[in-house]
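Q: I'm writing up a methods section and want to include an example of the input and output format. Could you take the sequence below and give the corresponding predicted structure tokens, formatted cleanly so I can copy it straight into the document?
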Amino acid sequence: MGAMPPPEKICPRCAAPVAAGARFCPACGLPISRLCPGQVLDGKYEILDKIGEGGMGEVYRARHLHLDEIRIIKVTKPDASGANSQPRRFQEEARLATLVRHPNVAALYDFSRQPDGSFYMVWEFIDGVTLEAWLRRNGPLPPGRALEVARQVLAGLAEIHAQGIVHRDLSPDNIMLRETAGGGLQAKIIDLGIAKRVASESLQMTGTGLFLGKLKYCSPEQAGSLPSGQTVDARTDLYSFGAVLYEMLTGKAPFESATPEGYIGKHLHTPPPPLDVTGLPKSFGPALAGVVAKSLEKNRERRFRDAAEFSAALARLRADPEQAGGGSSGEAARRSSPISGAQWVAAALLIAAAAGGAYALLRRESTRAARTPSRRANIVTAPARPSPTAAAPLAEPSFPPPPAAGVAAPTHPQTADVDTGPLPAQARQLIELWKSRPNEPRARRAIEIARMANRFVDAHPDDPLAGEIEETLPPYLKSQATASLDAAEPLLALLYFRAYRQLQFARDDPELARRIERVAPPE
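A: Here is the clean output for your methods example:
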């Protein structure tokens, strides 16, 4: 049996005595907390202080007397809607929270009911600050750090969604950040206060006219865009987190309004302003803007399918090494590229040769190289075969020169003949090298990469890399095409889209095709 509350409380403003159970000070009218510092709840939780109050309850910091550990306690308050639904909602919140066990989601330890009929939950204490407070104090996160926080939040969301739960209230003040010993940031999602199991949608716990969720980050579905009969699903959280990521990178939410109606109208009808990437390298910024734009699509069918796909799109980005956009993008590209531009030309041409039917292109490039002494010198001196005693490392391969007209492509130690395509190590290396190039040369070689991918998947269908290529290359090419459109680079968008259509295992995308047709030159 828990310890009984003291018969009287003391008003923190005027020090007047307040009767137990009273909600306001009789002397000055100050609202009184349900729990007081020093009070012991259920014989094991010593209340230390009140740290917050929301629409559904009050939040306290407490100490577990037997374990000597700090906990967070959330207590229900009287029903705000007058329908006596809050205890049921609170109980549903607790039941759902117990299903989630993930390092990036705050853990629920205890749940109980008090003699007065209110409920309380005991949560993990996170010694940190909310993302909202962090941004207010420090400003936007550097891109590299923002992507690391995003990866963790999306990992937590994936687990929440795997339990059939939609958070519905993802915002900067529901994400906690804690600095780790190594100087990094650990992110945790908190407060499943309005989360609902998709299978329990029939449980009517939202009072008429009571909009749950923060309007600044709510999805169009939550704002009323869904046709009759459709329900909000996990993609609403992806939209909300897209808005949070936008704010992490820029310091402000994508939409601002002075009224609730203004927020709803903007989420329903106004395209979000493009992410400002002027301080980021061209090889990274437009692609990041494309990922954020996709997460903020009004039509949920055009967003990422789930948190894992969203996270994978971010993982493929390569932030500036200094994570601040401070240096030249050309310098960043040179630092990240393990081979020279001339060697890359030779590598791309070798891919085209392996794809078959590309010798005319090889002859053109070979003639062009002959007119450029420095390029010719680099290509000619690249050994056709490394010495057995001094093989070139995988990270810095040397490629053979283009074959002359009518001459078969030479065999490379890590490349099979033209009938089977490149071997796994070489295929993986060439794709990674291609992705590391600046945007324009990467776009111009995209079709050759697509052809090489087709040939590799056909020749090595059982290799794990074939499955990886089938899973990752189509969305990568689509994201690059979308990012190029968003960056007003229609020619590059067309090159990426042509490469996407070359893939034998890519699905048709009529919407992207229509966007390309509207802005790109005719094929």
